[in-house]
Amino acid sequence: MLQVISSSWALLLGMGLLMVGNGLQGTLLGVRGDIEGFSAFQMSLVMSAYFVGFLGGSRMAPEMIRRVGHVRVFAALASFISAVLVLYAAWANPYAWMVMRVIIGFCFSGVYVTAESWLNNAADNENRGKALSVYMIVQMIGIVAAQALLLTADPSGYVLFVIISVLVSISFAPILLSISPTPAFESTKPKSLREIMEISPLGCVGMFLLGGVFSAQFGMSAVYGTAAGLTLSQISLFVSAFYIGATLIQYPLGWVSDRMDRRLLIMIVALLGGLGAVVGMLSGGDFVVLLIAAFLIGGTSNPLYSLLLAYTNDFIELEDMAAVSGGLVFINGLGAISGPMVTAWLMGAVGPHGYFLFLAVLLVATAAYAGYRMTQRASLELDETSSYAPISMSSTVMAVEYALETGAEDHESEDAA
What we know:
Helix 2 (40-68) crosses helix 8 (201-227) and helix 12 (321-350) packs across helix 14. The two termini are 22 Å apart. The protein has 14 helices and no strands. It is globular and about 60 Å long. The chain is an all-alpha fold. The relative contact order is 0.15. The model has no long low-confidence stretch (mean pLDDT 83).
């Protein structure tokens, strides 16, 4: 672990600062939108726009990198991110924000693709799994730290937007100045969604449903907090609880997943997440109960992402992993685009607790489909499955591809031993 940090500290530091900036902008917009008088539906369009841009960036960034190189793509996208972050405060209009969020999502996606390919190039076969684990931990720490920054200035002013812009600008310095040489970049033509569905129906359906869960966590948690009457400090803690749960529970569940039928574990974990959402729905505004609910939802939904990837990985060959991972990330992105809009509709129909109702429905549906799939396909022997590799739902197709390959390589190493 220390070897990974010492060899990639500049990249990890830069990515940590990026995650602070990206994590804070989502929560800040949710709070600022309420101050500006934007409706929940308008804010849902703003939040969905990020995932539209992110999905487009993940598809176009590889071609951009091949044409002009990592450094130019990095620098160009960085300038757009910093500019848009300042424009949020200067032009407080929901439809202008929607366009800005598309740009931000596109740029962050391209930046992540670039950084993740660099991270993979900096690692070798022996420590690639550890590098991915450290990368995920840095991502989560950055998002949690961002929520604390929300309390440092008045969200109705300019200061917090300037802080985000500065953090993002600074984040590129250690990456661009310290990472060398830039890696060669290759990408694989993705498989059709029909082919991936035939390989793993549970992987496809689960990834689509989890896309909605993730977008609700990342984009609508602050909107829920303002609608529920939480204070600024309570919103900060509430959003943090999702990611603290994800970080603490990811690795224990990963250990368990290598020792039992993953479909059964997916069903159990999804049910626990659904239970957490029901607890939040019935909390009656008790803030401690809301924190417990958020911790449980985040602690189950994020590992579910890695579990579904690992399960799909069990049925594909090494040479197909790049193509399948691209398709799964695309499916997850489609679910993420619709998540905020459905959440806002439910909040308007039944009140703020519609936020938890949406999460409960998606997680219980995931559990139900996993149970159904257990009746349609025989379980694999444990020695035929690949190793679990933790990965964050905010990662791009590059990190997912490396996680799948790492899981397969770890399994082959265990077989050889």
